[in-house]
TrEMBL record:
Alphabetized PANTHER family for the sequence: GLYCOSYL HYDROLASE 43 FAMILY MEMBER, GLYCOSYL HYDROLASE FAMILY PROTEIN 43
Record key words, sorted: Glycosidase, Hydrolase, Signal
Lineage of the organism: Eukaryota, Fungi, Dikarya, Basidiomycota, Agaricomycotina
SUPFAM superfamilies: Arabinanase/levansucrase/invertase (SSF75005), Galactose-binding domain-like (SSF49785)
Claim: Glycoprotein is one of the keywords in the record: no
Molecular function as annotated in GO: carbohydrate binding; hydrolase activity, hydrolyzing O-glycosyl compounds
Record's protein name: Galactan 1,3-beta-galactosidase
CBM6 domain boundaries: 329-451
KW Signal (keyword) present: yes
BP terms from Gene Ontology: carbohydrate metabolic process
Gene3D superfamilies membership: Galactose-binding domain-like, Glycosyl hydrolase domain, family 43
N-terminal signal peptide: 1-23
Length: 454
């Protein structure tokens, strides 16, 4: 039975991927994503560039856990899951605005067909964000290395968080999207034919305090995505809609249930793929910036406007432009057996209205009879942490060592988020213990979902 189950799972995933063989084939938001060398991917504040059938991802290297400039990385992939790190696209240059004492954020690259050249725009700033400039660098290949040209204030006004948009007209007119005037006014300004400089401001969204912007064009409609300004902390990200870049832009609306604060993420880029695009966001961890994670999710327009589709584990068929949100088996925490000081708690936010609190500091919950397939599997822990700081929870499988899983705060005690952990489950029944061997309190546990994928 279990063997048949795994055979079916393999067949299913193979057909989803159009013949590709197993390995990392799923997107797991919030997990530590690794590249083909096994290193944690450093591509924060990223953008995606597609050249032929290859995706290139340019992002910030935060290995040094600092906001200061270390490198703009470049990764390549044909499936958006299996990423190979290439040479760094842009590296610091002493005594310039892109030295290691300065800030380079949100790199975005577009291809200029007129010059057959890749052009990178980024937020170029001093360490206290006082310079508030854009920077530009160019290269003849997607990963460069890029030659730095200049940093300056577009049309003389401040520019902080920014994005780029390349339209689909015959000359591929491009625009820089940026938070200006002390982040109060959001501006859309046209680039010149080389994409080296700005020419004309085409729109201002006043008093809008937008960060991490990007525009996704769908069926002729422009959807602007961005966050509000709460520093590294998450907030409910928004969309604005317009039939023309010059406006009129709609007022803002949430792209995800407000309480989730965009599933603890900040938009960085919306990838045009399939009929709805893919949301790409950062789950920042300011105390440990290099450990910030990526939240990529499918989008739905079934309500007429864009909404994120939460998915613990999902796959994209890049060729067909379709996605599959995988399903798993749910085990409610309140069904487990409690140990120590843990408590059964009523919580309207929890599935079944109940969960287990006071885990850690001696409090545990044991979930028995968790069915496994004799290999690594993703397991999502649904929990709540009402604090302003993160917690963590230990998991032990069949008496083995504790695995520590970070739990970002969820904004309130009855807002639920999930975090993934890859566990090696034996074939058949497994016993999972949560909260053992930790002297701090874990989040309140609602349920776990066990997936067949790894
Ligand atoms: C991942 O990409 C590398 C480099 O392109 C390739 O050698 C490898 O076969 C790929 N693995 C999978 C599972 O697609
Ligand atoms: C951009 O254009 C403005 C106006 O022509 C000019 O003053 C400025 O030097 C240009 N900046 C760059 C980096 O070329
Ligand atoms: C919870 O326990 C009940 C009774 O043992 C069982 O029927 C049910 O399947 C369990 N559900 C989950 C989701 O754990
Ligand atoms: C686990 O979380 C607690 C806060 O609840 C923190 O003090 C501790 O450093 C965390 N442990 C690790 C290893 O991150």
């Amino acid at each position: 039975m279990a063997f048949l189950g795994s055979l079916l799972a393999l067949l299913t995933s193979t057909s989803l991927l159009g013949g590709a063989v197993q390995a990392a084939s799923v997107i797991v938001p919030g997990a530590a994503w690794t590249d083909t060398s096994g290193n944690v991917i450093q591509a924060h504040g990223a953008g995606i560039l597609k050249v032929g059938s290859t995706f290139y991802m340019h992002g910030e290297d935060k290995t040094h856990n600092s906001g200061l400039f270390r490198a703009v990385t470049c990764y390549s992939s044909s499936d958006l899951v299996n990423w190979s790190r290439q040479n760094d696209a842009l590296t610091p240059i002493a005594n310039t605005p892109i030295s290691t004492a300065n800030i380079v954020e949100r790199p975005k690259v577009i291809f200029n067909q007129r010059n057959s050249e890749y052009v990178m725009w980024f937020h170029s700033d001093s360490s206290n964000y006082g310079a508030a400039q854009v920077g530009v660098a160019t290269a003849k290949s997607p990963c460069g290395p890029y030659s730095y040209k200049a940093s300056w204030r577009p049309l003389g006004a401040e520019s902080r968080d920014m994005g780029l948009f390349q339209d689909d007209d015959s000359v591929q007119t491009a625009y820089v999207l940026y938070a200006s005037d002390n982040n109060q006014n959001f501006k859309i300004t046209r680039l010149d034919a080389n994409y080296y400089n700005v020419t004309t401001q085409v729109a201002v969204i006043p008093s809008s305090t937008i960060e991490s912007p990007g525009i996704y064009k769908r069926n002729g409609v422009y959807w602007l995505f961005g966050s509000m300004t709460t520093g590294w902390n998450p907030n409910p990200n928004k969309y604005w809609r317009s039939n023309a870049l010059s406006g009129t832009w709609s007022s803002s609306s949430d792209i995800a249930p407000q309480a989730t604060r965009t599933y603890f993420s900040q938009h960085t880029y919306t990838l045009p793929l399939g009929s709805n695009g893919v949301y790409m966001g950062d789950r920042w961890r300011p105390q440990q910036l290099g450990g910030s994670r990526y939240i990529w999710l499918p989008m739905s327009y079934s309500s007429g406007s864009p909404q994120l589709v939460w998915a613990d584990v999902w796959s994209i068929n890049v060729g067909a432009g379709t996605y599959t949100v995988h399903t798993g088996t749910t085990y409610e925490a309140e069904n487990g057996s409690r140990g120590g000081a843990s408590t059964l708690m009523d919580n309207s936010g929890f599935s079944g209205g109940r969960g287990i609190g006071y885990l850690g500091n001696g409090g545990t919950v044991t979930i028995n009879n968790v069915q496994g397939l004799g290999r690594d599997q993703w397991v999502s822990l649904y929990y709540a942490v009402g604090d302003s700081t993160w917690r963590n929870v230990t998991v032990s499988v069949n008496g083995g060592g504790n695995v520590l899983v970070d739990q970002p705060n969820t904004g309130s005690g009855n807002t639920i988020l999930s975090v993934p952990v890859k566990l090696n489950l034996r074939n058949g029944a497994n016993t999972l213990v949560f909260g053992g061997g930790q002297s701090n309190y874990a989040g309140d546990l609602d349920k776990i979902i066990v997936y067949t994928q790894a």
